[in-house]
Design brief:
Blueprint (H helix, E strand, L loop, with lengths): L1 E7 L2 E7 L4 H21 L2 H4 L12 H13 L7 H15 L5 E5 L2 E5 L4 E4 L9 E5 L6 E6 L14 E6 L2 H14 L5 H12 L4 E8 L2 E6 L3 E4 L15
Antiparallel strand pairs: 1-2, 2-3, 3-4, 4-7, 5-6, 6-11, 7-8, 8-9, 9-10
Length: 241
């Protein structure tokens, strides 16, 4: 697969796919951003609220997916934005014939896999040398990570990493934000309770929470492995505006 990093506004994306599908993925991401930006211009509350947003069913399907995911996770719709954009790009590549495609939107990752891939967890000094060996599975699915200690995401918790896996990538993203909010301290009890609450959400496969050198996991997750993370492959904003 080819690997390409590109940035537009505050979106930093790494795309892995066959060369022929790279332009399609980029176009999809630009379209999704345009849909969301237009909606925010019409209703600025959508872009700033930290609570679920009730949307009319005739709204664009991307907006509806974000709002539905946010309602389940009890967070604002923008908590699902990165996962929803990544998911749409992979959906568009699949519809064009792709069999293997990965879109990493700042740690919120959508997968369509024919072959196994390895994903390293990155959360600064808090989580190092760990990752997942992710086998192929039917359809598109996602693994999304939020953090209260690094990155630009809004979090009311102190998790170094709050990772959630689900078939619905927007839902995984929203629930990763919710999981991070639940990690109010780094005790074993808090971490265990937090992942338990997220795994109880319908549609969630599994969750991992890491804080203060401790990790809690629950549900169905790929094998956790030791990996030598390559800093050059971290999907983050590299261009200073």
């Amino acid at each position: 697969m080819n690997r390409r990093h590109f940035e537009v506004g505050e979106t930093a994306v790494t795309i892995l796919c066959d060369e022929a599908f790279l332009p399609l993925a980029r176009e999809s991401i630009f379209r999704s951003r345009d849909v969301i930006e237009r909606f925010i211009r019409d209703d600025p509350l959508f872009g700033v609220t930290l609570e679920p947003y009730e949307v009319k069913r005739h709204a664009h399907p991307l907006i509806v997916r974000m709002c539905d995911a946010a309602a389940v996770a009890d967070v604002g719709p923008m908590a699902a934005v990165a996962g929803a954009i990544a998911e749409q790009a992979v959906m568009d590549m699949r519809d064009a014939g792709a069999e293997q495609a990965v879109v990493d939107n700042g740690g919120d990752i959508a997968f369509l896999l024919r072959d196994e891939v390895t994903v390293a967890l990155y959360a600064g000094e808090g989580v190092q040398g760990l990752g997942f060996r992710i086998p192929p599975r039917k359809g598109i699915f996602g693994m999304c990570t939020s953090s209260g200690t690094i990155g630009p995401s809004i979090s009311f918790g102190m998790a170094d990493a709050a990772t959630v896996m689900a078939d619905n990538v927007a839902l995984a993203d929203a629930c990763a934000t919710r999981l991070g909010n639940l990690v109010s301290d780094d005790s074993d009890e808090t971490l265990s309770e937090a992942v338990g609450r997220i795994v109880a959400v319908a549609g969630i496969d599994g969750a991992l929470a890491a804080a203060g050198g401790r990790i809690a996991m629950k549900g169905r997750l790929p094998d956790l492995i030791r990996v030598a993370a390559d800093p050059s492959k971290i999907t983050k904003v590299e261009i200073s505006l």
